Amino acid sequence: MVPAHHRVAPTGKALKRKLEWRGLPVHIEYEIGDIKGGWQTLHSPYGYIPLSRGLDSDHVDVFVGPKQLASHVYIIDLMNENGSFDEQKCFLGFSSEDDANTEFDKHYPRPKSRGETHAVPFNAFSGFLRDRANWGKEITLVEVMKSGQTRAAEHASHRRYTNNPKNKKKLQAKWKIASMKKSGEIKTPKKCAGCGATGKSLQAHHPNHSQKTRVTWYCRQCHVKHDRAYSPARMRASVKRGAKG
């Protein structure tokens, strides 16, 4: 019996099981031998990747092969009878593009059903799907690699920021408050110190990063306004104006 907490898939089809494919969650709707759509006999387990979205605005569909250490995922374009694009099917666990194409043809025997096949490294594919900014994008090697380069640039920027000695006090103060919140030493108030609004998510602001536990709680909008008003550049400009006057 399928457990109640994962009994129904987004398609309305009962889930057979959940599995983790090298860290990537996969929900299986059909097993080998099952009939899909009243006509399609499954030759491989078939399901979808939760928390993903393909070009058809639904979850990304996957066929699961036997080779768990396969280096690539093969994304194949499924075409309509008139030659227009329909959707993409992903093939996990297949050793080669030929194997993936053969498996596709077993499930979609209509002539010209198979469009272009995109071979994508598994790690790049997994990282691409985990990023919500990529939801609804076509999964091709170009798009996946472009996304990977963007993430790599963001990580490099973050490393430069955290490794900069100028930011040491600020980060230590931030981590101290996060640790105290986690341990229950401090609690977030309900009211923003700026606008007085309640029910908003509040952020801790340090007037002085040397005093790690002294914070003022602002909503995001007030925090941004405060930081802009008291930014070092603006304060320096204010001092210069005062000196001239």
Question: Would you mind describing this structure in some detail?
Answer:
The protein is an alpha+beta fold and 245 residues long. The chain has two domains: 4-156, no CATH class; 169-244. It has six helices and eleven strands. A seven-stranded mixed sheet has the order 1-2-5-6-8-7-9. A two-stranded antiparallel ribbon has the order 3-4. A two-stranded antiparallel ribbon has the order 10-11. A hairpin with a 5-residue loop joins strand 7 (72-79) and strand 8 (85-92). The longest helix has 23 residues, at 141-163. The chain is elongated and about 70 Å long. The termini are far apart. Mean pLDDT is 82; it is low at 1-9.
How would you summarize this macromolecular structure in one to three sentences?
This protein is an alpha+beta fold and 245 residues long. It contains 6 helices and 11 strands.
Give the secondary structure arrangement, pairings included.
Blueprint: E1 17-21, E2 24-30, E3 35-36, E4 40-41, E5 46-49, E6 60-64, E7 72-79, E8 85-92, H1 97-107, E9 114-121, H2 122-130, H3 141-163, H4 168-183, E10 202-205, E11 216-219, H5 220-229, H6 232-244
Parallel strand pairs: 6-8
Antiparallel strand pairs: 1-2, 2-5, 3-4, 5-6, 7-8, 7-9, 10-11
Helix pairs in contact: 2-3
